[in-house]
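Support reply, case 0932

Customer input (verbatim):
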Amino acid sequence: MELEGAPMQLYLIRHAHALDGEDDEARPLSGKGRGQVRRVAAFLRTSGAFAPEEIWHSPLVRARQTAELLARRLTLAAPRRAVAGLRPEDDPRLIVRRLARKGRALALVGHDPHLSALASLLVAGVAVSPVFALKKCSVLALERVAGRWVVRWHVTPELLA
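Our regenerated output:
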């Protein structure tokens, strides 16, 4: 999908592993999930390839905790805020419209199937049959170049073990 605007970095981050629970919105990160965030944050700190100016996360607890833990471990001063349109079942086109107005480096912390559909929509122009599968606590870096989104890199906690 083509978007107008200045070059922009976009980091799509699926929340880390969470505990099971009946209240899906309140499920916190598990010990495993916190470990995933630590590994990914250590890699991102060393690489220097992650520099969001703002962090948006879904209102669900596990996404907020993933965003908070990443920001703390990376000592990021980027403001964090819960944003509508990042829940697992939300239409990715809602976020696409908001991205068209952004020019800053932005990290989105959310859920699947939403993030995989969003990445597929941005890069391939189709969200119905996702071409990306984001594992828990993975980071997919995209860049908007000349109105098109391209993949820069993708990392998962399993690659960093």
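We compared this against your earlier run and they match. Two observations from our side: Confidence is low (pLDDT under 50) at residues 1-5. The first helix runs from residue 31 to 47. Please reopen the case if you see a mismatch on your end.
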